[in-house]
Write a structure and sequence with these properties.
The protein is α/β, with parallel strands linked by helices. About 45% of the residues lie in helices and about 20% in strands. It is an enzyme of class 2 (transferase).
Length: about 375
Protein backbone atom coordinates (compact mmCIF):
# COMPACT_ATOMS: atom_id res chain seq x y z
CA UNK A 1 0.00 0.00 0.00
CA UNK A 2 1.07 3.61 -0.54
CA UNK A 3 2.38 6.14 1.94
CA UNK A 4 0.30 9.19 2.74
CA UNK A 5 0.27 11.81 0.00
CA UNK A 6 -0.73 15.50 0.01
CA UNK A 7 -1.73 17.69 -2.90
CA UNK A 8 -2.59 21.37 -2.80
CA UNK A 9 -5.86 22.32 -4.48
CA UNK A 10 -5.64 26.05 -3.84
CA UNK A 11 -4.02 28.83 -1.79
CA UNK A 12 -5.70 32.03 -0.59
CA UNK A 13 -4.24 35.13 -2.22
CA UNK A 14 -4.54 37.32 0.91
CA UNK A 15 -3.34 34.88 3.56
CA UNK A 16 -1.41 31.61 3.82
CA UNK A 17 -4.56 29.49 3.96
CA UNK A 18 -4.44 26.33 1.83
CA UNK A 19 -6.97 23.81 0.57
CA UNK A 20 -5.51 20.37 0.02
CA UNK A 21 -6.18 16.65 -0.27
CA UNK A 22 -4.55 14.03 1.96
CA UNK A 23 -4.74 10.46 0.65
CA UNK A 24 -4.31 7.50 3.01
CA UNK A 25 -4.98 3.80 2.66
CA UNK A 26 -8.27 4.27 4.53
CA UNK A 27 -9.52 7.16 2.46
CA UNK A 28 -9.19 10.76 1.37
CA UNK A 29 -9.21 13.79 3.68
CA UNK A 30 -10.03 17.23 2.34
CA UNK A 31 -8.15 19.97 4.16
CA UNK A 32 -8.35 22.11 6.14
CA UNK A 33 -9.87 19.50 8.45
CA UNK A 34 -10.98 19.17 12.05
CA UNK A 35 -10.51 15.73 13.63
CA UNK A 36 -12.94 14.63 16.38
CA UNK A 37 -11.11 13.21 19.40
CA UNK A 38 -11.90 9.59 20.19
CA UNK A 39 -9.45 9.11 23.03
CA UNK A 40 -10.23 5.49 23.95
CA UNK A 41 -11.51 4.55 20.48
CA UNK A 42 -14.80 6.37 20.99
CA UNK A 43 -15.82 9.99 20.41
CA UNK A 44 -17.70 10.68 23.64
CA UNK A 45 -21.52 10.42 23.38
CA UNK A 46 -21.39 9.91 19.60
CA UNK A 47 -21.80 6.67 17.66
CA UNK A 48 -19.73 5.76 14.64
CA UNK A 49 -22.89 5.83 12.51
CA UNK A 50 -23.48 9.45 13.58
CA UNK A 51 -19.87 10.32 12.81
CA UNK A 52 -20.40 8.94 9.31
CA UNK A 53 -23.89 10.19 8.47
CA UNK A 54 -24.54 13.39 10.43
CA UNK A 55 -21.12 14.80 11.22
CA UNK A 56 -19.35 13.45 8.13
CA UNK A 57 -16.03 13.18 9.95
CA UNK A 58 -13.23 12.29 7.57
CA UNK A 59 -10.72 11.22 10.23
CA UNK A 60 -10.84 10.69 14.01
CA UNK A 61 -8.21 10.45 16.74
CA UNK A 62 -7.27 7.78 19.23
CA UNK A 63 -4.72 8.00 22.04
CA UNK A 64 -1.81 5.64 22.60
CA UNK A 65 -1.63 6.11 26.38
CA UNK A 66 -5.31 5.39 26.96
CA UNK A 67 -5.63 2.54 24.45
CA UNK A 68 -2.48 0.91 25.84
CA UNK A 69 -4.01 0.89 29.33
CA UNK A 70 -7.51 -0.06 28.14
CA UNK A 71 -8.35 -2.32 26.30
CA UNK A 72 -4.65 -3.13 25.80
CA UNK A 73 -2.60 -4.08 22.76
CA UNK A 74 -3.50 -7.78 22.99
CA UNK A 75 -7.19 -7.01 22.48
CA UNK A 76 -6.49 -4.55 19.67
CA UNK A 77 -4.24 -7.02 17.85
CA UNK A 78 -6.80 -9.82 18.25
CA UNK A 79 -9.40 -7.51 16.67
CA UNK A 80 -7.09 -6.68 13.77
CA UNK A 81 -6.40 -3.12 14.89
CA UNK A 82 -8.49 -0.17 16.03
CA UNK A 83 -10.35 0.18 12.71
CA UNK A 84 -11.89 -3.27 13.17
CA UNK A 85 -12.25 -2.94 16.93
CA UNK A 86 -14.37 0.22 16.85
CA UNK A 87 -15.92 -0.09 13.40
CA UNK A 88 -14.44 3.14 12.01
CA UNK A 89 -13.12 2.44 8.53
CA UNK A 90 -11.98 5.91 7.53
CA UNK A 91 -8.55 7.30 8.51
CA UNK A 92 -7.42 7.35 12.16
CA UNK A 93 -4.62 9.34 13.79
CA UNK A 94 -3.16 8.32 17.13
CA UNK A 95 -1.41 10.70 19.48
CA UNK A 96 1.70 9.17 21.02
CA UNK A 97 0.50 9.55 24.60
CA UNK A 98 3.35 11.90 25.42
CA UNK A 99 1.05 14.68 26.57
CA UNK A 100 -1.02 12.29 28.71
CA UNK A 101 2.08 10.84 30.35
CA UNK A 102 3.02 14.33 31.47
CA UNK A 103 -0.48 15.56 32.34
CA UNK A 104 -2.28 12.49 33.74
CA UNK A 105 0.26 9.98 34.94
CA UNK A 106 1.64 10.20 38.47
CA UNK A 107 5.18 9.85 39.85
CA UNK A 108 6.71 10.05 36.39
CA UNK A 109 10.44 9.98 35.85
CA UNK A 110 11.95 11.25 32.60
CA UNK A 111 15.26 9.79 31.47
CA UNK A 112 17.08 9.48 28.15
CA UNK A 113 15.55 6.03 27.82
CA UNK A 114 11.96 7.24 28.15
CA UNK A 115 9.36 7.93 30.82
CA UNK A 116 8.57 5.72 33.79
CA UNK A 117 5.06 6.53 35.00
CA UNK A 118 2.22 5.35 37.18
CA UNK A 119 -1.17 4.66 35.61
CA UNK A 120 -3.93 7.12 36.57
CA UNK A 121 -6.32 4.13 36.55
CA UNK A 122 -4.81 1.64 38.98
CA UNK A 123 -1.39 2.96 39.96
CA UNK A 124 0.51 0.29 38.02
CA UNK A 125 3.98 1.20 36.78
CA UNK A 126 4.86 1.43 33.08
CA UNK A 127 7.74 2.53 30.89
CA UNK A 128 7.16 4.39 27.63
CA UNK A 129 10.15 4.65 25.32
CA UNK A 130 10.19 5.85 21.72
CA UNK A 131 10.49 2.22 20.67
CA UNK A 132 7.62 0.92 22.82
CA UNK A 133 5.34 3.77 21.75
CA UNK A 134 6.00 2.94 18.09
CA UNK A 135 5.26 -0.72 18.82
CA UNK A 136 1.99 0.17 20.56
CA UNK A 137 0.93 2.36 17.64
CA UNK A 138 1.80 -0.47 15.25
CA UNK A 139 -0.65 -2.62 17.23
CA UNK A 140 -3.33 0.09 17.22
CA UNK A 141 -2.90 0.42 13.47
CA UNK A 142 -3.66 4.11 12.89
CA UNK A 143 -2.97 5.62 9.48
CA UNK A 144 -1.09 8.55 11.04
CA UNK A 145 1.00 7.98 14.16
CA UNK A 146 2.74 10.61 16.24
CA UNK A 147 6.31 10.66 17.50
CA UNK A 148 6.92 10.30 21.23
CA UNK A 149 7.80 13.74 22.56
CA UNK A 150 7.99 15.72 25.76
CA UNK A 151 5.54 18.61 25.95
CA UNK A 152 6.93 21.23 28.37
CA UNK A 153 4.43 23.24 30.41
CA UNK A 154 3.75 26.95 29.97
CA UNK A 155 5.60 28.87 31.16
CA UNK A 156 8.92 27.04 31.05
CA UNK A 157 12.46 28.13 31.83
CA UNK A 158 14.61 28.49 28.73
CA UNK A 159 17.15 25.89 29.86
CA UNK A 160 14.43 23.33 30.51
CA UNK A 161 12.67 24.05 27.21
CA UNK A 162 15.92 23.63 25.27
CA UNK A 163 16.83 20.34 26.97
CA UNK A 164 13.27 19.09 26.44
CA UNK A 165 13.37 19.99 22.75
CA UNK A 166 16.71 18.28 22.26
CA UNK A 167 15.43 15.17 24.02
CA UNK A 168 12.34 15.19 21.79
CA UNK A 169 14.60 15.32 18.73
CA UNK A 170 16.71 12.38 19.95
CA UNK A 171 13.56 10.42 20.70
CA UNK A 172 12.29 11.23 17.20
CA UNK A 173 15.39 9.66 15.65
CA UNK A 174 14.68 6.52 17.66
CA UNK A 175 11.03 6.54 16.53
CA UNK A 176 12.07 6.58 12.87
CA UNK A 177 14.65 3.85 13.49
CA UNK A 178 12.10 1.62 15.24
CA UNK A 179 9.55 1.98 12.45
CA UNK A 180 12.22 1.05 9.92
CA UNK A 181 12.83 -2.17 11.89
CA UNK A 182 9.16 -3.19 12.22
CA UNK A 183 6.67 -3.85 9.41
CA UNK A 184 3.08 -2.63 9.28
CA UNK A 185 0.90 -5.22 11.01
CA UNK A 186 -2.30 -4.97 9.03
CA UNK A 187 -1.30 -4.59 5.39
CA UNK A 188 -1.58 -0.82 5.03
CA UNK A 189 0.91 2.01 5.50
CA UNK A 190 1.32 3.90 8.76
CA UNK A 191 2.78 7.39 8.54
CA UNK A 192 4.87 9.00 11.28
CA UNK A 193 4.44 12.72 11.96
CA UNK A 194 7.24 14.36 14.01
CA UNK A 195 6.33 17.13 16.46
CA UNK A 196 7.85 20.59 16.83
CA UNK A 197 8.51 21.71 20.41
CA UNK A 198 10.49 24.59 21.91
CA UNK A 199 7.94 26.22 24.22
CA UNK A 200 7.58 29.98 23.60
CA UNK A 201 11.18 30.79 22.68
CA UNK A 202 11.64 31.92 19.04
CA UNK A 203 15.10 30.45 18.57
CA UNK A 204 14.01 27.08 19.95
CA UNK A 205 10.86 27.03 17.83
CA UNK A 206 12.93 27.88 14.77
CA UNK A 207 15.55 25.22 15.54
CA UNK A 208 12.91 22.57 16.16
CA UNK A 209 11.00 23.49 12.99
CA UNK A 210 14.18 23.22 10.93
CA UNK A 211 15.05 19.85 12.45
CA UNK A 212 11.57 18.46 11.87
CA UNK A 213 11.51 19.81 8.30
CA UNK A 214 14.83 18.08 7.60
CA UNK A 215 13.34 14.69 8.51
CA UNK A 216 11.29 14.65 5.30
CA UNK A 217 8.30 12.97 6.95
CA UNK A 218 4.98 12.62 5.14
CA UNK A 219 3.47 15.27 7.44
CA UNK A 220 4.48 17.42 10.39
CA UNK A 221 2.93 18.55 13.65
CA UNK A 222 3.22 21.68 15.78
CA UNK A 223 3.03 20.78 19.46
CA UNK A 224 3.14 22.61 22.76
CA UNK A 225 0.93 25.54 21.71
CA UNK A 226 -2.32 24.76 23.50
CA UNK A 227 -0.99 24.60 27.05
CA UNK A 228 -2.14 27.93 28.45
CA UNK A 229 -0.18 30.52 26.49
CA UNK A 230 -2.00 33.67 25.27
CA UNK A 231 -3.75 33.37 21.91
CA UNK A 232 -1.54 35.94 20.21
CA UNK A 233 1.55 34.01 21.28
CA UNK A 234 0.06 30.83 19.87
CA UNK A 235 -0.54 32.56 16.55
CA UNK A 236 2.98 34.04 16.52
CA UNK A 237 4.70 30.68 16.96
CA UNK A 238 2.31 28.85 14.65
CA UNK A 239 3.24 31.33 11.93
CA UNK A 240 6.93 30.88 12.64
CA UNK A 241 6.66 27.09 12.37
CA UNK A 242 4.50 27.14 9.23
CA UNK A 243 6.96 29.43 7.46
CA UNK A 244 9.70 26.83 7.95
CA UNK A 245 7.80 23.57 7.44
CA UNK A 246 7.68 22.31 3.83
CA UNK A 247 4.70 23.53 1.83
CA UNK A 248 4.14 20.16 0.16
CA UNK A 249 3.41 18.31 3.43
CA UNK A 250 0.32 18.64 5.66
CA UNK A 251 0.73 20.69 8.85
CA UNK A 252 -1.07 19.66 12.03
CA UNK A 253 -1.58 22.09 14.93
CA UNK A 254 -2.18 19.87 17.93
CA UNK A 255 -4.93 20.46 20.49
CA UNK A 256 -6.38 23.67 18.99
CA UNK A 257 -9.02 24.92 19.73
CA UNK A 258 -11.90 27.42 19.54
CA UNK A 259 -13.59 28.08 16.19
CA UNK A 260 -11.72 31.38 15.87
CA UNK A 261 -8.42 29.72 16.81
CA UNK A 262 -8.98 27.28 13.97
CA UNK A 263 -9.76 29.99 11.43
CA UNK A 264 -6.67 31.97 12.45
CA UNK A 265 -4.59 28.79 12.25
CA UNK A 266 -5.91 28.11 8.76
CA UNK A 267 -4.94 31.64 7.73
CA UNK A 268 -1.37 30.90 8.90
CA UNK A 269 -1.07 27.75 6.78
CA UNK A 270 -2.27 24.95 9.09
CA UNK A 271 -4.15 22.04 7.51
CA UNK A 272 -5.20 19.78 10.41
CA UNK A 273 -6.70 20.44 13.85
CA UNK A 274 -8.04 18.49 16.80
CA UNK A 275 -9.50 19.47 20.16
CA UNK A 276 -11.79 18.05 22.84
CA UNK A 277 -13.56 21.41 23.07
CA UNK A 278 -16.63 20.68 20.90
CA UNK A 279 -17.59 17.55 22.81
CA UNK A 280 -16.40 18.62 26.27
CA UNK A 281 -18.05 22.03 26.09
CA UNK A 282 -21.12 20.47 24.52
CA UNK A 283 -21.52 18.09 27.46
CA UNK A 284 -21.45 21.16 29.71
CA UNK A 285 -24.16 22.95 27.76
CA UNK A 286 -22.07 25.26 25.53
CA UNK A 287 -23.07 25.20 21.90
CA UNK A 288 -21.09 26.71 19.03
CA UNK A 289 -23.42 27.93 16.29
CA UNK A 290 -23.21 29.89 13.06
CA UNK A 291 -24.72 32.84 14.95
CA UNK A 292 -22.55 32.71 18.09
CA UNK A 293 -22.07 30.86 21.36
CA UNK A 294 -25.11 29.55 23.25
CA UNK A 295 -25.20 28.57 26.93
CA UNK A 296 -28.21 26.32 26.56
CA UNK A 297 -28.78 26.12 30.32
CA UNK A 298 -29.76 29.81 30.46
CA UNK A 299 -33.43 30.37 31.26
CA UNK A 300 -33.80 32.58 28.16
CA UNK A 301 -33.94 29.43 26.03
CA UNK A 302 -36.76 27.80 28.03
CA UNK A 303 -39.43 28.92 25.55
CA UNK A 304 -37.28 29.30 22.43
CA UNK A 305 -38.77 26.77 20.05
CA UNK A 306 -36.42 27.50 17.16
CA UNK A 307 -34.08 24.70 16.14
CA UNK A 308 -30.49 24.67 17.37
CA UNK A 309 -28.95 25.81 14.08
CA UNK A 310 -30.89 25.72 10.78
CA UNK A 311 -27.76 26.67 8.81
CA UNK A 312 -26.04 23.33 9.37
CA UNK A 313 -26.51 20.28 7.17
CA UNK A 314 -27.03 18.15 10.27
CA UNK A 315 -30.32 16.47 11.11
CA UNK A 316 -29.78 16.81 14.86
CA UNK A 317 -29.07 20.55 14.66
CA UNK A 318 -32.12 21.15 12.47
CA UNK A 319 -34.52 18.85 14.33
CA UNK A 320 -34.27 19.58 18.06
CA UNK A 321 -35.29 22.94 19.53
CA UNK A 322 -33.31 25.03 21.97
CA UNK A 323 -36.15 24.79 24.50
CA UNK A 324 -36.18 21.00 24.36
CA UNK A 325 -32.41 20.70 24.60
CA UNK A 326 -32.40 23.06 27.61
CA UNK A 327 -35.07 20.90 29.22
CA UNK A 328 -32.92 17.80 28.71
CA UNK A 329 -29.93 19.48 30.37
CA UNK A 330 -31.98 20.72 33.31
CA UNK A 331 -33.47 17.23 33.72
CA UNK A 332 -29.98 15.63 33.52
CA UNK A 333 -31.00 13.45 30.59
CA UNK A 334 -28.19 11.62 28.79
CA UNK A 335 -29.73 12.56 25.44
CA UNK A 336 -28.72 16.19 26.10
CA UNK A 337 -25.04 15.23 26.01
CA UNK A 338 -25.48 13.36 22.76
CA UNK A 339 -27.41 16.11 20.97
CA UNK A 340 -24.95 18.82 22.06
CA UNK A 341 -21.91 16.74 21.10
CA UNK A 342 -23.27 15.86 17.66
CA UNK A 343 -24.24 19.47 17.01
CA UNK A 344 -20.88 20.94 18.07
CA UNK A 345 -18.91 18.45 15.99
CA UNK A 346 -21.15 19.09 13.00
CA UNK A 347 -20.53 22.82 13.45
CA UNK A 348 -16.74 22.35 13.56
CA UNK A 349 -16.84 20.22 10.41
CA UNK A 350 -19.06 22.82 8.73
CA UNK A 351 -16.56 25.51 9.69
CA UNK A 352 -13.54 23.86 8.06
CA UNK A 353 -15.59 22.82 5.04
CA UNK A 354 -16.76 26.41 4.56
CA UNK A 355 -13.18 27.64 5.02
CA UNK A 356 -12.06 25.27 2.27
CA UNK A 357 -14.78 26.53 -0.09
CA UNK A 358 -13.77 30.12 0.65
CA UNK A 359 -10.10 29.39 -0.02
CA UNK A 360 -10.98 27.86 -3.38
CA UNK A 361 -13.31 30.78 -4.16
CA UNK A 362 -10.60 33.31 -3.30
CA UNK A 363 -12.38 35.22 -0.51
CA UNK A 364 -11.27 33.32 2.60
CA UNK A 365 -9.49 36.24 4.27
CA UNK A 366 -12.40 38.68 4.07
CA UNK A 367 -14.87 35.94 5.09
CA UNK A 368 -12.73 35.05 8.12
CA UNK A 369 -12.54 38.65 9.29
CA UNK A 370 -16.32 39.02 9.00
CA UNK A 371 -17.35 35.74 10.57
CA UNK A 372 -15.06 35.61 13.63
CA UNK A 373 -16.90 38.47 15.47
CA UNK A 374 -20.18 36.65 14.74
CA UNK A 375 -18.89 33.32 16.08
CA UNK A 376 -17.61 35.00 19.26
CA UNK A 377 -20.98 36.54 20.12
CA UNK A 378 -22.54 35.32 23.37
CA UNK A 379 -26.20 34.82 22.57
Amino acid sequence: MAALSFELAGVDSNSKARAGVITTDHGVIQTPIFMPVGTVGSVKAVTQQQLYSEINAQIILGNTYHLYLRPGVDVLEAAGGLHHFNGWHRPILTDSGGYQVFSLAENRKITEQGVLFQSHIDGSRHLFTPESVMDIQRSIGADIIMAFDECPPYPSEYTYARKSMELTHRWLDRCFARLAETPDKYGYTQNLFPIIQGSTFPDLRRASSEYIASCNATGNAIGGLSVGEPEEMMYEYTALCCDILPADKPRYLMGVGTPWNILEGISLGVDMFDCVMPTRNGRNGMLFTTQGVVNIRNKKWATDFSVIDPSLDCETSRYYTKAYLRHLFVANEILALQIASIHNLAFYLWLVKEARLRILAGDFDSWKKNIIPVLKQRL
